[in-house]
Amino acid sequence: MSGVTLKSIYKSFGAQTILKNISLEVNSGEFMVVVGPSGCGKSTLLRIIAGLESIENGDVYIDGHKKNKDDPSKREVAMVFQNYALYPTMTVYENLAFSQRIRKRSKSEIQERVMESAKKLRIDDLLDRKPKELSGGQRQRVALGRALVRKPKVFLFDEPLSNLDAKLRQEMRFEIKKLHSQLNTTMIYVTHDQTEAMTMADRICLMNDGVIEQVGTPQEMYNNPVNTYVSRFIGMPPINLIEGEINIEGDQAIFVSDELKIFLKNERIREKLSRNSQKIILGVRPQDLHDNYFSEIKDIKNTITATVDFVENLGSTAIVHTHKGNTQISGSIKSETSIKPGDSIDLIIDVNSLHFFNQATNERVNF
Amino acid sequence: MRKKIETLGILCLLILFIMAILYPALNIISVSLRSDDAFQTRSLTLWTDESSFKSYFTLFLETKFLTWMKNSFIVSFVVTLTGVVLASTSGYALSRFNFIGKKAVLFSILMTQMFPATMLLLPFFILLAKFELINSYIGLIIIYSSTALPFCVWQMKGYYDTVPPELEESARMDGCTRFSAFTKIILPVSVPALVITALFSFMASWSEYVVASIVLQDPELYTLPLGLKSFQASLATQWGLYAAGAVVVSIPVTILFIFLSRFLVSGLTIGSVKG
Amino acid sequence: MKNIIKILQYIFRSLIVTKNIVFLISIFIFFGCQSSNEITINIWHQMLYENRKALREVCDKYEESHTGININLIYRETEELRSNFQSAALGGSGPELIYGPSDQVGPFAIMGIIKPLDDLFSLSYFDQFLSNAVVKFDKKRWMVGDGVGNHLMLIYNKNMVSSPPKDTDELIQLGKSLTKDLDDDGVIDQFGLVWNFTEPFFYVPWIGGFGDWFIDESGKPHLDTESNENAFAFIKSLRDKHKIIPKECDYETANALFKTERAAMIINGDWSWGDYMGKVDFGIAKLPRISVTGELPTPIVSTKGYSINAHTKGEKLHHTVDLMKYLTSPEVQLHYVRRLNTQPSSLAALDHPEVQSNVLLKQNADIIKNGKPMPVVPELRAIWDALRGEYQSVLAGTKEPHSAAIESQRKAEEQIKTMNLVVQPGSQGKFIKGLLGLIIVGIILVLWKTKEKFLFAFRENKFAYLMILPAFAGIMIVVLFPFVYNLIISLSNFSLRTFKNWDLIGFYHFGTVLSDIRFYSVLGKTIIWTLINVSFHVSLGVFLAVLINRTLPAKKTLRTLLIIPWALPQYIAALTWRGMFNQEYGSINLILNKFFNMSPVQWLSQPIEAFSACIITNIWLGFPFMMVVALGGLQSIPKEMYEASQVDGASRWQQFCKITIPMIKPVMLPAIILGTVWTFNNINVVWLVSNGGEPSDLTHILVSYVYKAAFNLYRYGYAAALSMIIFIILSAFMVSFMRKTKLEAIV
Ligand SMILES: Nc1ncnc2c1ncn2[C@@H]1O[C@H](COP(=O)(O)OP(=O)(O)OP(=O)(O)O)[C@@H](O)[C@H]1O
Ligand SMILES: [Mg+2]
Q1: Do C639 and B266 touch (CB under 8 A)?
Q2: Would residue A41 be called left, alpha or beta, if left means φ above 0 and alpha means ψ between -120 and 50 degrees?
Q3: Would you call C670 and B154 a contact, using CB atoms and an 8 Å cutoff?
Q4: Side-chain half-sphere of B42: how many Cα atoms within 13 Å?
Q5: Bridge partners of residue C193, in order along the sequence
Q6: Are residues A183 and A285 part of one domain?
Q7: What is the per-residue pLDDT across B204-225, written as a single tens digit (0 to 9) for each?
Q8: Which DSSP helix (H) or strand (E) runs through C32?
Q9: What rounded mean pLDDT belongs to chain A?
Q10: CA C37-C42-C44 angle, 5° bins
Q11: Are A51 and A71 in contact (CB under 8 A)?
């Protein structure tokens, strides 16, 4: 049981409160990804777990023990920093061995541990070099290796891949994941890249402006975002959010906005709806919009005819950005399309996978 | 090719400049070698028929030059050590921590340099006399250290500011205490700044005259500048000796610089952090 | 490198161990204290090099015959001797005996820091000396001289001058025939006559030759005379009309010229004989009679002697008196005669056959007869000061002799008035006292109130506070007391007449400073001085650092050569520069002439030129420091940053502006602030290169102005107030500079 538990953490710098009532449970062996926009307090949260920042309120448990006041050196957590923070005056070997030397382990034991980690990360041929003689990816690996050598209870990663090029990033992503499955140690990984979050996480913790919006598996986050914020953050390209209201006309529930009229699946809506008309935000993921031209299913009632603004071709799929009146809508369609800006396109809405949010609170409404 | 021409150009420029710089220095050397004990020279031939090393012999054999030199070394060494130790620690605290009064400390340290030193001599003397520190190196060392420190503290702080704090945070997570993270990781990275601090502290005490002249009154305790000044009298200076002394005095500084400048190379590079 | 780090780490580690602290302290104590039960008598003196040796010899002899007595000799240059003794006496200590020229008696007696000798010695003791060797002031005796003289005479090179000129006409004629351009390069290589003619002491004998004297019996200045006017014109004619003396000539230049046989005659004092012996075959003579008046110039004759510190008491006083008797005894004086040819003051020594048969001394005694005694009143300094300024204006050609004579009298009277002024404490003084008391109480109250907060903050950041504490405490302890002391002095009437019983008077001195137009002109000069210096220091320093930071052949050697100006002692470097600026002999003019075909610049006798000379010297002295700092700052810039910007197509200049400057800013800004402050307050260079503000006190910056006020005219209160104003100006500068450069943000 070497998980991490945070209980109502508060943190402020001066008058500015950075973390507000953060509670989070990271299970033992779990790969938890913390995402959120820049400046929302992710690094601060990690640093609190590491013991590099003090907290005003709340508790930090590591491995079941309360560690609020413990020095970082006593917490048995390792951290890979946003900038790798390799010791510039030491060789790679010394960098890896440093923590062990501090703990006064025997030479042979140190050697053994360093070699083990170095092999795992394929940096065993770089051990005599100084950090400045390494490439970005190699530095990244050394930073990882430095954490690995210690065999900590918890690994903390603070955007370790943000400065690497796309290909290398993918490779490293894979490598870190592989490492996780080998070691089965608790890892908390901070990023503001939602792809990284989706692909790597066992669970995702989405933060915004010092609070946690939602914690859950990638699938949960995608399928059941608790509010508009989460829905917008998770999923590429971002979800379409359209303000409007649901009206009951006869026994049909209809979403109406200035430009759109969508006939919803009826079943539970009528029961749940208190009045005959309710203001709502409708969320449609671009993936749930289909090009009428290619689509096998046709749903004439729920087809929107919109004007194309531009097309982003991603290879297998293409994203069309369109508008109808004042409403911007983007859809994910087949890349074979020959559609051009200015054309009009018919998009079928998949009414089975719509999301609804309260207009006042932005929170999810489940029908 | 372009690079070579450029280097050559720079070299020429530097050499021209250095010649202009060295001219007065050569002047002093030529005075020290001349026999007429006169200061004004018109020609700049370093060595004439009458030149000799007589002044240098006199300096070492007939005066207490070696004693003064030893004294100066003791004082400068302790001041340098104090300077390096205190400036590196306090500069670190000022760079890394936010605490009440930090700004006040930083500003007041600078402000202490703003009062004309001439007017401080009288109160210094009163103070030293009260604590019976006249004729002792402690008084001298305290005054020297604290006059050199403001610059050293600021300059260390400025350098630490460029060192990413993640370095010592890493070390702390690796098991270091705050203090050992500082000594084991940050100090080695800050060698260029330490070198400047050391050089400056050394210089502040090595050729300081005014304070020494009020604190030290026993010729056995004289430091070099005091000794040198005694070759100079209002209307009859021993120019040969004085110049020779000046030349010899500047040698340790030069050696120190040559030694230290090896460390005046990049302590911190992109290697530690990504761009 | 590793070793150094290891050593440092070791030092740090060992510093935590208290045992080592104890060890360090014991080292200090070892250096600091020497216990002994011997009696040590300290003598501060300003003797020339050879005289010092002779003094040591006689003291050794005394120590031999008086076991348990230790004599400690400390040399200080005349001006320093005076100021250090004042400070020491105020601090309640200082040497038992002080040896110096008789003119220091007046101020010391008024300040009450030397003892009257009448009660300590018998009358018969005083009767053993020539009357002018026992210095009286205010009806008491204060000093006994061990020799008389220090008077000016004509010293001539026997190889060039067969018989000395009898009068000034002869002098001019002879001078003309001896002033030659030997190698026809348009520069005169040999002069008929040289001397330190710009200094009042070397000038006043001529006033006597024209009839009057510059000071009257009661110590009042007597400068608005025709004699003074004529003497002004006479010296100027020697230089400009007859061209027998150099255009610029200070003491060192004159001495060098004479010693290297490039001058046939020199006007100098008896102290210089020792220097010339064995180098020049010289003869001495009276200063030549003034042809128009037919009178002889009257050099000042003074004595140098011993006075007793007012703090000397008890048994020590007894021994001191005994030692003083010995040091003035005929025996010692005869020793000096043998060693140094000094003119004895003891009647017995004068009668001694050895003295009687000494040709030089005999001639000397004849010369002395025409001398006038050195006035001992403190007003003398003010007179010198006023005279010097006006005289130099005449020489620089900016004033006519007539108006200069009148002006010098007016200035001398004015300065005497300010010097002797005692501002009586009025209601403002009481108010200030109350205010100070209130402030102290207020500070204590505030500290008490915020004690909790401080304790809390301390506990929160113990590590940080502990790390700063030693440095901060050290700096504050050293500076705080002197600062408060000066603050109080600046509000007081501390001056010559109130040396021991000063009182608070309020903001009087601040008012005086701020309403004085001269303050603003000096401030303006100081700002120009600082601006030019600092901008050159920084730009040169950064420029060279960038150049030298590249890969260059012989980089290390070049780098080392560039710091040499910093390595040389500032004092001698400044004097070397002064020599280089000499109008005829300085290498600067020689170079300007040779390579740029420029006519000689009067570097040291014209105000703007002299100021430029100071600036050039200081630039030379100051850039290596900035270079080293910049070099250190450059090391924190990763090479990759340049490479990256090169790829982006940045030019060198853009790289410099966009990378170098911002990256070295954090280390350069403090250096620039402090560099500015140090330059603003750098008294040494200005004082040495311009020889204390020459010409005519027009090259002063604020600190040298402070120095002059405090130590020349004894206006401590005024000087302290001026210092406070400097402090305020600089603090204001710092704050605004930090705002401008956003340094505050990174604090
Ligand atoms: N030492 C500090 N003092 C004051 N404010 C700070 C400090 N450290 C961080 N902050 C502020 O706290 C907020 C959160 O910072 P944090 O570094 O945790 O963001 P982040 O989520 O990691 O952002 P990024 O994705 O850009 O790294 C920011 O607004 C930042 O300005
Ligand atoms: Mg971050």
Answers
A1: yes
A2: left
A3: yes
A4: 13
A5: C265
A6: no
A7: 888 888 888 888 877 788 898 8
A8: helix C18-32
A9: 88
A10: 170
A11: yes
Give the count of domains, chain A.
2
At residue C262, the 3 state secondary structure works out as: coil
Cα separations (Å) of B50 from A98, B24, C274?
A: 64, 21, 20
Closest ligand 1 atom to residue A47 Cα is 18
Domain for residue C557, yes or no? Answer: yes
**What span, in angstroms and rounded, lies between the C-alpha atoms of A81 and C658?**
27
- pLDDT score recorded for residue C276: 84
Q: Do B89 and C470 touch (CB under 8 A)?
A: yes
Q: What is the model's pLDDT at position A206? A: 94
Angle between helices B191-206 and B239-261 (to 10 degrees): 170
Asked if C143 and C279 sit in the same domain, the reply is: no
Amino acid at the residue C170: E
Q: Which of B40, B71, B214, B223 should one mutate to test binding to chain C, selecting the residue with the greatest count of C CBs within 10 A?
A: B40
Please report whether residue B140 resides in a domain. yes
Between A85, A130, A136, which is nearest B170 by CB?
A85
Question: DSSP readout, B255-273?
Answer: HHHHHHHTT-S-S--GGGS
Model confidence at C560, pLDDT cuts 50, 70, 90, reads: confident
Question: What's the rounded Cα separation, in Å, for the pair B210 and B117?
Answer: 9
Long-range contacts of A168-174 (CB under 8 A, 24+ apart): A168/A136, A168/A137, A169/A196, A171/A137, A172/A137, A172/A140, A172/A141, A173/A199, A173/A200
- Report how far ligand 1's centroid is from the alpha carbon of A213 (Å): 18
CATH number of C227's domain:
3.40.190.10
Provide residues with CB under 6 Å of ligand 1. Answer: A 13, 18, 36, 38-44, 192
Q: What's the rounded mean pLDDT across residues C390-395?
A: 88
Query: Where residue C635 falls among pLDDT bands split at 50, 70, 90?
Result: confident
**Residues in chain B, total:** 275
Asked if B273 lies within 8 A of A85 by C-beta distance, the reply is yes
Identify the weakest region by mean pLDDT among A143-147, C130-134, C591-595.
Answer: C591-595
Using the 3D structure, point to which of A174, A196, A225 is the last residue of a domain: A225
Question: Is residue A205 included in any domain, yes or no?
Answer: yes
Q: Work out the end-to-end distance of chain B between its first and last CA atoms, rounded to an integer number of angstroms.
A: 30
Place of tokens 């023990």: A65
Number of other CB atoms surrounding residue C17 within 10 Å: 10
Together in a domain, A84 and A216:
yes
Domain count, chain C: 4
The burial of C559, by beta-carbon neighbours within 10 Å (0-12 exposed, 13-18 middle, 19 or more buried), is given as buried
Of C15, C274, C674, the CB nearest to B151: C674
Residue range of the domain that includes A100: 4-225
Q: Tell me the pLDDT band of A112, cut-offs 50, 70 and 90.
A: very high
CA dist A235 and A221 (Å) reads: 9
Length of chain A: 367
Regions in chain B scoring below 50 on pLDDT = 268-275
**CA angle at residue A63 from A60 to A67, to 5 degrees?**
35
Report d(CA C77, CA B233) in Å as an integer: 6
**Which residues does residue C283 pair with via DSSP β-bridges, in sequence order?**
C156
The string over C195-232, giving b where at least 16 C-beta atoms fall within 10 Å of a residue's C-beta and e elsewhere, is bbbbbbbbbbbbbbbbebbbbeeeeebbbbbebbbbbb
CA distance C494 to C491: 9
Closest CB to B246: pick one of C74, C470, C568.
Answer: C568
- Among protein residues, the one with the nearest Cα to ligand 1's atom 8 is A44
Q: Give tens-digit pLDDT for A139-149.
A: 888 999 999 99
The label of the residue with tokens 């719509």 reads A354
Q: What is the DSSP letter of C114?
A: B
Which amino acid type is present at position C653? W
C195 and C67 share a domain? no
Same domain, yes or no: C699 and C556: yes
